[in-house]
Amino acid sequence: MSPMRSFFIALSQNKPIRYFAEHSRFGRSIQSRFVAGTNIEEALHAAEVLNRLGILVTLNSLGERATQPDEARQAAEVYHQLLDRIAACGLKANVSIKLTQMGLGFDPALAESITLSLVEHASAIGAFVRIDMEDSSLAQSTLNIVRQIHSMPGLAGSIGVVIQANLYRSLGDIEQLSDEQIDVRLCKGAYREPHSIAFPNKADVDSNFIRLSCVLLDSGAYHGIATHDKEMIQAVESYAAQQAIPPSHFEFQMFYGVRRDLQRRLVREGYNVRAYIPFGADWYSFFMRRLAEHPDNVLYFVKNFFRW
Ligand code: FDA
Predict the structure, then answer these.
(1) Distances, alpha carbon 248 to alpha carbons 79, 244, 252, in Å
(2) Residues 198 and 63 in one domain
(3) Ligand 1 touching residue 304 (CB < 6 A)
(4) What global pTM score does this model have?
(5) What does the pLDDT look like over 29-69, one tens digit per residue?
(6) Domain that residue 51 falls in
C-alpha cells in the first residue's frame, strides 16, 4: 500500500481527528462543500437549491457495506423515505445506490430483492434508481441484477447502471446494455484494478471514455456522461453536434460541489446536468476514503478550492 494511501486510511480511522473534523468550523466547511448534510432534510434542501438552478440531482445515502440483513434493510429504508419525499416535494431527483449496502457482499438474493422493492417504489412515483458500480469483482453480479430487474414488467426505464471506461470489458457491456435500452452512466472508474483487466494508462482510459460515449450517444437511448474533465465534455459536445443528436437525448453528471462553474455553464448552453449528492453522518470516512483511493484528489482539492 502506498504511503499516501496508508496515511489517509489511518486518518479515516483516527478518532480525535475525526472528532475535530466533525465538530470544527473547518471540518464542517469541507463537509458542506462536498456532502449535502448528515440527514434527509439537508439533502433535500440541497436538491431543491440545485433544481432551482436548473440542475437535476441524484441522491446517495453514505454508508458502509452491509454485513448483516438488518443493516441492508435499514440502508434501503433511507432510500424508501427519500423516494417518498422526492415525490412529495416534486423534485427533479433520482437515487443512486450501492449494492454492497443492500447486502450484495454476503447475500446476492437479498440484495436483488431489496433493490427490486426500491425500483418498484421508484417506478410507482415516476422516479429512477441508479446502481453505482463498485470494484470489478462485483461487476457481473451487479449487471445481472440490473438486467433481471429491468426485464420485469413495468420496470424498464426505472433502473440504470454505471459502466467504467477503465475496464477492457466495458465496450461489450455497453453494446449489450444499449441493445436492451438500459440507461447507462459512463464514468472513468474510481477503483484500482489489475492491469490484466483495466487500462493502466490515463490516456487510454480517456480515449476509451470518448469511444464509449459515442457508442452511447449513437444508441438512441438516454444515458449519463459522468465526468468533470473538460476534454471529455468537449468531445461529447462535438460528437453530438456532428451527429445532430439533440442535448435533450443525454445528460452530463458531476459530483455535488465539484466544478460548479462548469455545471452552470452547461445548463446555460441547454444541456441536461445532474449533480450527484452524497449525504449522511458517515461523511468523514467517505471523504478520507476518496482521498485514499486517489491521493491526487488532494491536489485537486487545493488547486480548485476556490473554483469548485
Ligand atoms: P479525471 O479524474 O480524469 O480528471 C480530469 C480533469 O477533470 C482534471 O484535470 C480536473 O480538471 C477535472 N477534475 C476531475 N476531478 C475533479 C475534482 N474532484 N475537482 C475538480 N476538478 C476535477 N466511479 C465508479 O467507479 N463507480 C461509480 O458508480 C461512479 N459514479 C460516479 C458518478 C458521478 C456523477 C461522477 C461525476 C463520478 C462517478 N464515479 C464513479 C467516479 C469516476 O469514476 C471518476 O473517478 C471521477 O469522476 C474522476 O474522473 P473525471 O472523469 O472527473 O476526471
Answers:
(1) 27, 11, 11
(2) yes
(3) yes
(4) 0.92
(5) 767 777 888 899 999 999 999 999 999 999 999 988 999 99
(6) 39-279
